[in-house]
């Protein structure tokens, strides 16, 4: 018994230890899933709180920005012809009248600003700008024609936000007004002072008036010039540019048209284009136009021909149609030189000239060498010939001279030497 008890106690202790270990592992296993859930819940709560705080801050900032933003002070207004006995839905004002006659009409002005505005309403003579648009004289410049014939019922107006007012006016044609077309503008303007610089903002509508009588439409074309621009490709066609001035020399408004032709000498390789976007011409006005012509052959000298025509502008309801406009033309000449081709030709000509000159110099050098060689050979031959002649002369001087009919050999039987050219001995001595 005493020996078995300790072993039983040890076994019981071991079982108890294993039970405690299993219990600890079970508790840890139950705790592991709870930790991530708790952390996730804390993160969600923090995110909600942060987003709520940021939203509140952004809302406060936007509210403050809106409070600090200045009010809209943009000023704008519009004008258009009123619907009267003169017409409805009109883009502008157009009349015809006899000298001494008056025309009554009205214009609508609307304030499209958020605040009230004050405007000046007046008429002024019209003119064409450099781009062909119709403009009117500045407020301080006095009109001399149609602008001075318009009397505005309310030159100064005050408009509340969104208010529209109808302003009557009258066009009184003078008794001595010449027949023809006149242009002006009726505007509502505001003067703006920006740092000491006063500018005028104005918005208006055109006024066209035809004073009935003898209408004489006429057109002139002047100041024609032509320019040429080549291409890098030798002998390829380039671009031409024709500039000309159209002048309305009649008393009616004109809608012009122009046909431009560029050709080479004797009318070779003509290229024709029609002028586009030619602006309307008021009586007495001029407008410069430039027409581009592609495909111009580089033929050296070219001629630009401008054939212009026009139609007198008529408005619906005119009681008198204007007569036709006679066509006019003008021309000018200019150079269409293919500079690239010319440079190429000059380069080839330079190379050929250099080659010919080099060949000529080489021939001269060879001829000089040959002449020198011939001279040297002749000199050498002359030197050899001269040495042989000297030897022969010495032998002749050493021989005895016969007297009284005896020859050089001393043979008295030989005939005496004479100076005859037929004597062989004399010939031998002379020739060596």
UniProtKB/TrEMBL annotation:
Keywords: Membrane, Transmembrane, Transmembrane helix. Residues 1-26, 385-432 are annotated as: Disordered. Residues 15-26 have a biased composition (Basic residues). Residues 1-10 have a biased composition (Polar residues). Residues 423-432 have a biased composition (Basic and acidic residues). Residues 385-412 have a biased composition (Low complexity). It comes from the Bacteria. The keyword Transmembrane helix applies. The chain crosses the membrane at residues 38-63, 335-358. This is DUF916 domain-containing protein.
């Amino acid at each position: 018994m005493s020996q078995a008890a300790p072993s039983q106690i040890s076994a019981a202790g071991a079982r108890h230890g294993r039970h405690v270990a299993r219990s600890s592992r079970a508790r840890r296993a139950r705790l592991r899933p709870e930790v991530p859930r708790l952390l996730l819940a804390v993160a969600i709560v923090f995110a909600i709180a942060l987003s709520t705080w940021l939203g509140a801050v952004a809302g406060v900032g936007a509210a403050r920005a809106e409070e600090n933003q200045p009010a809209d002070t943009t000023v704008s207004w519009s004008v258009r012809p009123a619907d009267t006995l003169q017409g409805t839905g009109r883009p502008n004002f157009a009349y015809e009248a006899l000298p001494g006659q008056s025309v009554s009409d009205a214009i609508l002005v609307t304030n499209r600003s958020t605040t009230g505005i004050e405007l000046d309403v007046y008429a002024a003579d019209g003119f064409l700008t450099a781009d062909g648009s119709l403009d009117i004289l500045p407020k301080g410049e006095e009109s001399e024609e149609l602008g001075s014939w318009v009397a505005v019922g309310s030159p100064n107006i005050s408009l509340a936000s969104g208010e529209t007012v109808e302003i009557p006016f009258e066009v009184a044609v003078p008794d001595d007004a010449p027949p023809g077309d006149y242009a002006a503008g009726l505007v509502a303007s505001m003067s703006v002072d920006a740092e000491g610089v006063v500018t005028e903002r104005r918005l208006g509508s055109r006024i066209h008036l035809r004073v009935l009588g003898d209408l004489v439409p006429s057109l002139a074309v002047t100041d024609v010039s032509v320019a040429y621009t080549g291409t890098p490709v030798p002998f390829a066609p380039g671009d031409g540019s024709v500039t000309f001035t159209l002048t309305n020399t009649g008393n009616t408004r004109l809608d012009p048209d122009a046909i431009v032709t560029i050709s080479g000498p004797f009318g070779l390789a003509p290229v024709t284009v029609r002028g586009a976007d030619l602006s309307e011409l008021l009586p007495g006005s001029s407008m410069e136009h430039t027409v581009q012509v592609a495909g111009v052959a580089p033929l050296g000298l070219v001629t630009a021909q401008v054939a212009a025509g026009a139609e007198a502008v008529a408005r619906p309801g005119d009681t008198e149609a204007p007569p036709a406009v006679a066509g006019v033309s003008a021309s000018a000449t200019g150079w269409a030189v293919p500079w690239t081709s010319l440079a190429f030709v000059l380069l080839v000509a330079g190379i050929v000239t250099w080659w010919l000159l080099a060949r000529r110099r080489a021939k001269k050098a060879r001829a000089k060498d040959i002449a020198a060689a011939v001279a040297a050979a002749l000199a050498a031959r002359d030197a050899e010939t001269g040495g042989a002649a000297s030897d022969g002369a010495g032998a002749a001087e050493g021989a005895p001279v016969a007297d009284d009919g005896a020859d050089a050999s001393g043979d008295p039987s030989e005939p005496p030497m004479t100076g005859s050219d037929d004597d062989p001995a004399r010939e031998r001595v002379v020739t060596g």
